[in-house]
Amino acid sequence: MRSATSVRVALAALSVLAGCGNWSNEDIAFVEALPTSQALRVALPASTGQALCAPPGASEVWAWAKPAGDGLNALVDLMLGFVDLVKSVTPTTRAPDGRTWGPFDDQKHPGKQVRITMSRTRDAAGVPTYSYVFEARPKGGAFQAVLDGAFRGESARAGQGQFALHFATLRALEMDDHPDTDPTGDLSVQYDKTGDPRTVGLDVKSQSGSLAAFDYGYAGYASGHGSFHYAFTNQQQQQYVVDAFFDAAGEGRADVAVVLGTNTYSFSECWDAAGCVTHVDDEYAGRPLFPDGISRLCKDGQCPKGACPSF
Amino acid sequence: MAAIAVAMALAAWPAGAAERRFALVIGEPDGGAGTQTLRYAERDALRMHAVLTRLGGVRDEDARLLLSPGVAELRRTLHELAERSRSARAQGDGTVLLVYYSGHAKEGALRLRETRLELSELKRLLEDAPADVRIGLLDSCRSGAITRAKGVRQVPAFDVARAGGPHGLVLVTSSGADEDSQESDAIGGSFFTHHLASGLLGDADASGDGKVTLAEAYAYAYARTVASTTDTTAGVQHPAYLYDLGGAGDVVLTELPAGAGALIFPAAVEGAFVVLDGGRRAVAEVAKAAGAARRLALPPGRYTVKKRLAAGDGLLVQDVELAGAPVELDEGRMRRLPLSKDPQKGFGGARWSLVAGLGGQRFFGPSSATGLFPPAALGGLELLVRDDLGHGLSWGLDAELGGGSSTLGFTGDAVALRFFEVSGGASMWKDFQAGPVTLSAGARLAFLYLGRSFPGRPDLQSQYFFTLTPGLTGAAAWHLSDRFAAVARLRGNYLFYNVDRNMSLGYAELLLGVEYALGN
After folding, report:
1. Contact, B217 vs B75, CB < 8 A?
2. ipTM of this model?
3. Does position B11 have pLDDT exceeding 80, yes or no?
4. Which chain A residues are closer than 8 Å to B496 by Cβ?
5. Which of B371, B461, B465 has its CB closest to that of A19?
6. Which CATH code fits B2-250?
């Protein structure tokens, strides 16, 4: 009895001394495990697609990279919107290996509430894995996961992560801001910051728009050069596969394969730092790549021939 | 009776055309093995040296102050003064050689650290000294033994046969041959020297002629010392004397200059008064009855006069500023205080001061290793109110501003941060005086607010934390002057951190600064 009283007195004394605030290293550790734009964004040389070139003109393939990168970055921005939401507010609850934000009203989507939950586990070597799930619901409804992912690594700047954005759920919750163009399926992203290059992979399965599937891979080196690979299949079931390499100055090379029906056409292009074609190796030069509408500026006889340099 | 006998024996020193006085003043707190260090022996010596050179007719060049000397230095200095006296006599001057000693004596010898000077030798040295009057004033335990030694005759009380002024030897001791001489923390000195000095400043001037004779001084010191030690645990202390003094007149030890600064106790005033200097140390006492004014010849300065009232009535206190002219005590203007605020016991009323300091703060324990609370630079201001809660009990308010930069300790990462902190506290503490240093120890309750941001990382939210932190505080203030002191303050605080998880943390703050005393 006396002991219980002493405990109560001690607790009362401590409550007087209890602090207030959000001063927390652990909060930083948790939010640092979330993807950042620095980790995910495609960084292409500035010359991409903007040069005014003398004949034979600008590299079309290189010019494709920019919209492709922009498209990826747009999806990343969507993801980062959720992340920014987390970073802008203090966790609602804290546990030794967990944080919860919300539920709170989504200012961007009235009538909806969001909640973010993060947890942390460690493997035998003590390397932490942070798992997170962003959930949303109509007020009073049940939460549904719109984004979930995980990050494994000793530090925020050196680890591997993956996440998936569930467009079908976003649409169902009427929280998809671009329902006409956004994929209908899941957007899966994998990224690896453990070494050089850092890599980002993106895979979309869609039943809407002009794409049926999109697969994108990007590798960026600390030195500034990099590569990207993307393959997409449009609604006409025509598959395009692009493997491109570029250096920090913007010079690069792309190997393109186009599958039309049972035929595969391939060509290679090289471009200089201004994005202007320097070499073409195209066995089908001069013929339009019907029916995708891609027009080849570098007709046979107009382009310097020869093998592109390797990167 | 002995005092009365001496008083009657020593009449006034006749007016002489030329007189040289020499004084050897010794203070030795260390009596060597088997003795306790005396707290006030040196202060006693300083007081006597000041009185003798200011009022006792001893020129500065004829006074020697020895603090903690050995016997060899004592002998050498005494010999030097004796030679100077010899020279003066050769020129026809009358001479007085006075030796004052405050320190240990044991087993028939003065104890100066590990060296000894036998009392018999001291007597012999004084007897042989070439001065018309040799006076020994010994404030030490069992010093009365010197009056029993061979070689000095105790003369009749009325032996004033020799003409041409007084001549001979006088020994005055603070205690009997088998008594201890006692010190008092309340008066900040030994009882005997305190009363002797008080008498020499004027309270012993029973005749009211502005001169304190050896007889008056002894009679006064005897009576006051006996009265003061009646209730002490060591027992009553009886000063003793021995003299071999001939000639006409008495030896005037101090003269109280009429026109100079002095504290006047009017005729109507009666009671026991204590005069304290600016350091709250007793410099004089006055015990007087109504009917005659009393004059204390004090040097310029600020004093506090205290009068103790009947039991339960507390004290009357007045602050007095002495300059070049006499100041009369006005009992009607004295303010009444409870005994708990006795200035003689260190209570001087609230004394306000400001402290400004710079230093640092460091958390200890795991919180510092993880970078949760990195070390900070601090600057602070503190308002101190000393003695406001009673003798030595003080309080203060403080405010600090600090900050720094650091990085969070994630493996492989360096998340840079800048932080600041503001704190304000209230403290209560007890002051302890140790010479020129005031030591303080007490408790403090502070409010602490910390904020931090992450430069280059706008995506990371700024953070803050605030709480109350109880702790302990200590300080050492080295008094450089009346107003300034160098201060080192150390605080240890408890902090209950409860954001990531509940943790009991501690942090220390060290501030070095300057204290400035406000007011008078």
Report:
1. no
2. 0.72
3. no
4. 14, 17-19
5. B465
6. 3.40.50.1460
